[in-house]
Write a structure and sequence with these properties.
The chain is an alpha/beta fold. The protein contains 18 helices and 16 strands. Helix 11 runs parallel beside helix 13. It is globular, with a radius of gyration of 22 Å.
């Protein structure tokens, strides 16, 4: 049967809405993530013999009228429509799905993503014309649903759904997490067939880049992290080292313009033995001569592994440092120690790896003093790049539950983004308003990037690495308005 997979339009007049980012928005850096989870489900269904049409509206970006025109021209005969969603765009996503439903009556409408996974009944309550939402990891759920619809079977027997029925919302049996991730086709193969890498941008990566996942599930318990708590769980599952190396080889062969691979796993380095195996295969196949890569890497990463990663082509690692306060790290269940950050950064510099450090304000226990402590830590660590964001708690996370129970959070999902699609701060804490946290992050960003020491560092890196200099210029072009604004 024909399945239409849609990453819907949202605020296209303002730019590219990055729906599958951990904090969906039209970003200040111009980042646009590949719609990877939607892609994997589409590729999985195509591999099983179904015909697919894939529309990534934000990539162009297409507005509502243009998106509807593309669907009518290419997928009016589809029997199943699968829509990616996000918290800030959920009401718009539902409205778009209903508009398609009018034009394609009799089709089955399924919403997927972190938001409906966390708020299944609430989401179905927006309209009786939304047939179902998928709860959690949805590749196998979409395939099972497609097979059932094709055979005229009973959709209430499809696992992993919450159905809209005449008797109210009905949850079906859970869909077990996928164990053999090697069964899923490469993201790179799907991109080569359906997408254009130049439509996507990740500020920390050399442009153009390709994003992939090599694992699912995160064994750690950070209370704010949305994907492990709503979709993939904490059971850490991996692709084989051979599968990862094969995909790198595919990218090297089929994408001559691509310079870097972004491994978007929550924590690529969770299993040292596997990291070493992946790196050994990349080196054995000579791939570091052709492709560089970056990954999210927890601060317990040791020097030996860093050095091996560097030999295998790793250029940059991204740790979630979050705070300079140990009490806050404990409050958010980060499982790290402030002392680790200094060792981590020192080892990365020894190994020749760059670091993009992530800092966050607004967590439980935050004060002006702890925010300043975080900025002091960031300046001291002096990583290659850094980001400062207020906490944005998403439904389904412990952080959201904490904020809701204490009356700290705005309950209107449309306010998760501003009118122009950029991030909005929906959190107000005792003694710290949303505006206070935004102002602090803006100040911290300026303090960090407008230092003479930092500017000279970027120039030195640019002289030795022209591709990185081009990346920096592209990112700076997007960010300069926010760095030099008065606020």
């Amino acid at each position: 049967m024909k399945i239409c997979f849609i990453n819907p339009p949202f605020k296209a007049e303002y730019g590219k809405f990055s729906r599958e980012s951990r904090s969906p928005a039209i970003t200040k850096s111009g980042a646009l993530y590949y719609p990877l989870w939607l892609m994997y489900a589409a590729a999985y269904c195509e591999k099983a013999g179904h015909e697919i049409y894939f529309l990534d509206a934000p990539a162009k970006p297409l507005n509502t009228a243009q998106s509807l025109e593309a669907i009518e021209a290419n997928a009016a005969d589809a029997q199943l429509f699968v829509y990616d969603t996000s918290t800030p765009s959920i009401k718009s996503d539902v409205e778009f799905a209903l508009e398609v439903k009018k034009r394609c009556p009799g089709s089955f409408t399924l919403l997927v993503g972190t938001h409906p996974s966390a708020t299944a009944e609430e989401t179905l309550g927006y309209s009786p014309l939304i047939d179902a939402v998928a709860i959690g990891e949805f590749d196998a759920t979409v395939l099972e649903l497609a097979n059932t619809l094709q055979d005229g079977g009973d959709v209430s027997q499809v696992r992993g759904l919450c159905l809209n029925t005449a008797d109210g919302c009905q949850r079906t049996a859970p869909m077990p997490a996928m164990r053999n991730l090697d069964e899923i086709p490469f993201a790179a193969e799907f991109i080569h067939k359906y997408l254009n890498p130049r439509d996507y941008f990740f500020a920390a990566a050399t442009y153009p880049s390709i994003q992939i996942f090599t694992t699912r599930g995160c064994p750690f318990r950070c209370n704010f992290c949305v994907y492990p708590q709503t979709m993939h769980g904490h059971a850490f599952r991996t692709r084989s080292a051979e599968s990862v190396a094969d995909e790198f080889e595919y990218i090297a062969t089929h994408f001559p313009e691509v310079k870097e691979v972004v491994i978007e796993d929550d924590t690529f380095t969770a299993n040292k033995k596997r990291v070493m195996e992946v790196c050994s295969l990349l080196i054995e196949r000579g791939l570091p001569k052709r492709l560089r890569w970056l990954c999210n890497a927890r601060v317990n990463l040791d020097l030996e592994t860093m050095q091996m990663m560097k030999k295998a082509g790793c250029r940059l690692i991204i740790p979630g440092i979050e705070s300079g306060s140990q009490q806050i790290l404990n409050n958010i269940k980060k499982g790290t120690q402030v002392e680790q950050f200094h060792t981590y950064v020192a080892n990365a510099k020894k190994a020749g790896l760059l670091i993009h450090a992530c800092y966050m304000v607004g967590n439980q226990g935050e004060t002006r003093e702890t925010m300043n402590r975080t900025l002091e830590l960031a300046l001291k660590l002096n990583t290659d790049t850094a980001q400062f964001f207020p906490l944005i708690p998403y439904p389904g996370t412990e952080a959201y539950q904490w904020a809701r129970e204490n009356g700290y959070i705005e309950s209107d999902y449309t306010k998760y983004c501003r009118e122009d699609g950029t991030h909005n701060t929906v959190l107000n804490l005792p003694g710290l308003s949303a505006e206070d946290m935004v102002d602090f992050c803006n100040m911290a960003r300026k303090r960090y990037y407008l230092r003479l020491r930092y500017i000279l560092h970027r120039l030195r890196v640019g002289i030795t690495d022209p591709d990185d200099f081009k990346r920096s210029l592209k990112a700076f072009g997007k960010l300069k308005h926010f760095l030099f604004s008065k606020k």
